[in-house]
Amino acid sequence: MNNLEYLNQISQENRPTSAKKSASMSLIIKIAVGGLVAFLFIMCLGMALSAGKTSPTDLTKQLYVRTANLNTALTTYNKSLKSSQLRAIGTSLNGVLTSATASLTGYLASEGDKEADLNPPEKLLTVETETIEALDTALNNAKLNGILDRVYANQIQLQVSLLVTFISQLEQRTKDTELLEIISQYQSNLIVIEQSLKDYSNPSD
Known about the structure:
80% of the residues lie in helices and 0% in strands. The protein is mainly alpha-helical. The protein is globular, with a radius of gyration of 17 Å.
């Protein structure tokens, strides 16, 4: 519950300021972003409740898919950001996600999983598919309405926070030293990115 309270605080602190557009357009964007945040909170709660029933290997596969999906979103939208600082943060995150994807792929392969078996069970895969589709919708709408930087900073920070929480749960479920080394480094790198996003969104803090 502490993790969920922390994520809720993030969404409150980084709530977008009013855009200089029509009231109806602003309302549509707020509803879209708010819906994504609500969906992610529900997903995170469900993940926490079901983690005890999911094997560490399946959680690792889910982490792999989430990492790869987020990296794809970054590749799609980073080039459209106006802020060079935010683009630099996105590029750094891209490097972290790319490295983690390679490490997780190597780990799962060493566990006997072929490339075709990197996906988690269908239920978990469905969650990840819905998550990335919701994120893509929010970012694409923001891009079309000229407020991509603001929405991107808020939503990518939330995604990074969710990844940090996910890794903490996986750490509690496995005793595999190789996996622990991979995800510990991954988490440390994500925390650095998370702080960079906080500093960008709250430069006076």
